[in-house]
Design brief:
There is one protein chain. This protein has 148 residues and is mainly alpha-helical. The chain is 69% helix and 8% strand. The chain is globular and about 55 Å long. The relative contact order is 0.10.
């Protein structure tokens, strides 16, 4: 069983890395990285977030998000605006130039998914999804138990 678990660990890591590399390759012609696209996706879901909000949602540091927002702002895809309630905070807001990228990012994601599941019968995909949801739930319960 130890060899099986080691193989699973390696496969999980490879899948995440390969999906990221493929997405990066597909989005690169549009002048974006996967990390920049993730920032945009969070803002498309809920615009006018603070950098701290984005960092928390992406599970990265605020300095990392600051650099991503700097590059997106330089391209005219987002802008920082003063928070009307907290003068110290800045809100990151999408510009009109960013909105067409949502369709492109969706198309890139669909292509990554298509490549990921190519040749797998739909029933196998459903079983895989169910098993992965169980793994995620186990990990979440363990994290919540240790935090509380």
């Amino acid at each position: 069983m130890d060899a099986t678990l080691a193989a699973c660990k390696s496969i999980f890591q490879d899948i995440a890395r390969f999906r990221g590399l493929l997405f990066d390759r597909l989005i690169a012609p549009y002048g974006l990285t996967m990390s920049q696209a993730r920032v945009l996706l969070h803002l498309l879901a809920e615009d006018k977030l603070t950098q701290s909000d984005i960092a928390r949602r992406m599970d990265v540091g605020t300095v990392t998000v600051g650099g991503l927002v700097d590059r997106l702002e330089a391209r005219g895809l987002v802008e920082r605006r003063a928070d009307p309630i907290d003068r110290r905070a800045k809100r990151v807001c999408l510009t009109d130039e960013a909105r067409p990228l949502e369709k492109i990012m969706d198309e890139c994601s669909a292509e990554v998914d298509g490549a990921s599941f190519k040749g797998l019968p739909e029933t196998s995909i459903h079983v895989l999804l169910s098993n992965l949801q169980a793994v995620r739930q186990n990990l979440l319960e363990t994290l919540n138990k240790e935090a509380g």
